[in-house]
Amino acid sequence: MNCIVTAGPTYEALDEVRRLTNFSTGKLGTELANFLVARGHDVTLLLGYYSTYRGEQFAQTVRTFSSTAQLADMLREAAGETIGAVFHAAAVSDFKFGKIWKRSPTGELTELQAGKISTRRGTLLAELVPTTKIIAHLRGWYPHARIVGWKYEVDGGRAQVLAKAEQQVAENQINACVANGRAYGPGFGFVTGAGESKHCVDQPALFDTLAEQAGKSGK
Q1: What's the rounded Cα separation, in Å, for the pair 112 and 102?
Q2: 49-103, pLDDT tens digit by residue?
Q3: Which residues pair with 83 in a beta bridge?
């Protein structure tokens, strides 16, 4: 089966030399791609340019992305009947920068624009604008593929993370969502619907479960 795996972080520019990103290493997605190749699948790995994981890459095709918009473009361009499964493990930035302002002593805001915003301007105010939710578009781009999303959370507890994963599945019409992070605790939750989930004790158990998705056909 032809599979797409996204992995690693996106980044959003503040100016021409600074950016907003996250701590994703790209390790899990890269190793998932390797696992699927070993199972006989043809895999395209879309990997964040600033992924720090430097392990082996066995995916037949590897492409790198920078911003959320570029990753979205790659996924839209790759859409087609030949794609059987999409594993969206990339850590997509929730925000991008909007306007940058300098506040005067009297409280007035002046918008700043520069290739490199100088620190000599002192304390600045940065607007954070939500990025495009890629997961919301995947079913439209891949109407017949098996689609798995990710929900990584650090606040709350396992029940809350599973509830958010269930919400992701329902709202985006995907087949499953992997729940993990500090809020979930050790292991991974594999959520397929409201009240339907499976606990995977470690990464090998998760990969076996995800490989089952790649072995299924149709939405």
Answers
A1: 7
A2: 999 999 999 999 999 999 999 999 999 999 988 999 999 999 999 999 999 999 8
A3: 2
Q: What are the sequence ranges of the domains in the chain? A: 2-93+133-153+203-214, 96-129
CA distance 178 to 169: 10
Radius of gyration of the chain (CA): 19
pTM of the model: 0.93
Backbone angles phi, psi at 71, to 5 degrees: -60, -40
pLDDT at 218: 58
**pLDDT higher than threshold 80 for residue 134:** yes
What amino acid occupies position 113? Q
Q: Which CATH number fits domain 2-93+133-153+203-214: 3.40.50.11030, 3.40.50.10300, 3.40.50.1820, 1.10.510.10?
A: 3.40.50.10300
